[in-house]
Specification:
CATH topology of the largest domain: 60s Ribosomal Protein L30, Chain: A
Order of helices and strands: EEEEHEHEEEHHEHEHE
Number of domains: 2
Oligomer: single chain
Shape: globular
CATH architecture of the largest domain: 2-Layer Sandwich
CATH class of the largest domain: Alpha Beta
Radius of gyration: 18 Å
Strand order of the largest sheet: 1-2-7-5-6
Largest sheet: 5 strands, mixed
Number of helices: 6
Helix content: 25-40%
Strand content: 25-35%
Length: 236
């Protein structure tokens, strides 16, 4: 099952909640990865938003949990709005809380994305038997996310593929790797997936802030998809 929670609102509509967090990533002296807080927010919300959109939901609000410093709030919010801009989505209301009583030695930030979905439009378990699979982008983690950005699947591409006819499901890859998400996709669709013994991508490697995602699609549009995805496309 995907990393989201569905809460029924009515017979036809559900609330959808997704979340992500980062620790030791930011601008503090003892952080393990040193990046601006705009970047922390960008990649943190990126994961939560991708999870939300992938199941067919539309975002309605964002919650930021800021354990860094009150002074960095505007930078975190700027990173959040950059995500929506890149995805081609209008601005979404942002709220949250800041730990202002105690100062932590390392950065810690959490993101919650809240959305709504029509029950009949939930995109889980809708991949037919004849579908093909591909990974878009490469699994990257830590400093690799910054130094190998040309292989990070763009949010704009993710959003475009979600709205491409013939694409059935998209599954963001997280810290458990491509193989884990492939097995989850297979389970949801009651089918088997033949994992390649050896390929271009490391199927067990963490994809950090969902630098890649799995896509199931109709074989009829494969040529079109390869043109759209360019060097991000890896057949499974």
């Amino acid at each position: 099952m995907r990393d989201v929670v569905f809460q029924p609102l009515s017979e036809t509509e559900s609330l959808v909640i997704s979340a992500d967090n980062s620790g030791g990533v930011g601008e503090k002296e003892h952080d393990l990865v040193h990046v601006p807080y705009e970047t922390v927010a960008y990649f943190g919300l990126r994961v939560a938003l991708m999870e939300l959109l992938a199941v067919g939901a539309e975002p309605v609000s964002v919650v930021i949990q800021n354990f860094n410093d009150e002074a960095v709030w505007e930078r975190l919010e700027a990173g959040v709005q950059k995500v929506f801009h890149e995805a081609g989505i209008g601005s979404v209301p942002v709220t949250g809380s800041t730990e202002s009583n105690f100062r932590l030695l390392q950065s810690a930030t959490g993101f919650i994305c809240i959305g709504k979905v029509n029950t009949k439009n939930i995109r889980i378990g809708v991949t037919p038997e004849h579908a093909k699979l591909a990974v878009i982008g490469k699994p990257l983690v830590g400093e690799e996310v910054l130094t190998d950005q040309e292989h990070v699947a763009p949010l704009s591409l993710f959003y475009k593929l979600l709205h491409t006819k013939g694409v059935y499901e998209i599954v963001p890859v997280g810290s458990k790797g491509i193989e884990h998400e492939l097995k989850g996709l297979a389970l949801a669709n009651r089918r088997e997936v033949d994992l390649p013994a050896k390929g271009t991508l490391d199927l067990k490697k963490s994809a950090g802030p969902s630098t890649c995602f799995i896509m199931s699609y109709s074989p009829e549009i494969e040529t079109e998809l390869k043109k759209i995805c360019s060097h991000y496309f890896y057949a499974v």
